[in-house]
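Recall the central idea of this unit: under ordinary conditions, the amino acid sequence of a chain determines the structure it adopts. In this exercise we apply that idea directly, starting from the sequence alone.
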Amino acid sequence: MKVFCGVDWAEDHHDVVLVDDTGTLLARCRIGDDAEGLQHLLQVLADQGDDPDHLIPVAIETSRGLLVACLRATGRLVFPINPLAAARYRDRYSVARKKSDHGDAMVLANILRTDLAAHRPLPADSELGQAIAVLARAQQDAVWDRTQAGNKLRSHLRGYFPGLLSAVSHMREGLCTATARTVLAAAPTPADAARLTRTQLKSLLKKAGRRRDVDSAAEALREAFRREQMHQPPLVEEAMGRQALALLRQLEAACISCDELAEAVETSFRQHPDAAIITSFPGLGTLTGARILAEMGDDRTRFASAASLKAYAGSAPVTRASGKTRAVLARKVKNQRLAAVGYVWAFSALTKSPGARAHYDRRRATGERHTAAQRNLFNRMLGCLHHCLSHQLPFDEATAFANSPQTTQMPTAA
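Accordingly, the structure predicted from this sequence is:
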């Protein structure tokens, strides 16, 4: 007799239901979100025939958390069911739209009973692969937080201190650079900045880590701060300066988090056996490669073919056909993180690979927009990555673009 388990997840407790292959309720209980609750769940599973040779699969509406991690550690299949999909299944069993925790757990168990083959279990990634996923996602979130904090500070400075924005506009990272943050912390208002001497500016630049052209950089800042500009009333300007310091502290924390997490990601990623293969691809560095690995995982059975990986990343188009109507559209349901790093990868590959550039130019010549051609290139490179990881081979330009006319010289710009 086959047994299936459904767990309705909540913050402090979970409802558990077990059914057999005929849909008969075998057991139900409510467990706490603690070690005692986990032991209770394992005991309930054992009472229904759970053993190392016949582990009962579990369906739950989340893929994260301690309960999921502990269930995965037992070696059983854990199926994360999308809450939207579970809501659709709920209508199969009742048209009254009633809802309860026990009923939701019953629905999850019946999803496995009727459609187990239509759902994917959590991949069996290695411990190192899971650690890289945590760090890479945290670093990506920190980058987004830094961008948001920088935009808030830039918008605020535009209202009373545009001179600082013009002074750091030539810097690659603008307000996120250590120079801009250090100077703003010392002089949060135009009046304070105009009073800074050359010696003070040199000291601030050295404090920010500047080692070359300190004198010229200090002189450029001094001229920018003393240039005539519009001002807010003195008291308003001082108040806005205090607000700028508060926003600066948020930006400072985000920048520090980005740097520390990036270092941790690079250290962990270099230890992974797939790192050499991933970074052999043009356009993929340590950070972008770690993000690719974090979303793909290192479980080789997760994606049976390159097509499934492309659909997961959203690079493959989706076809909608009904009668005589047929439309090929960009895929909206996808792994957003993998899609985001895919555009960065494809854009960087244009200047690193003659074959990638030729592929992009050929798509553009057919009338495709930049975004579509870039997505198609990402689709091509993703298929090559799946092949290389499956066969443990490094990237080879001649093999990847064997049938594409390649440029004779490396392009200098995207």
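Residues 407-414 have pLDDT under 50 and may be disordered.
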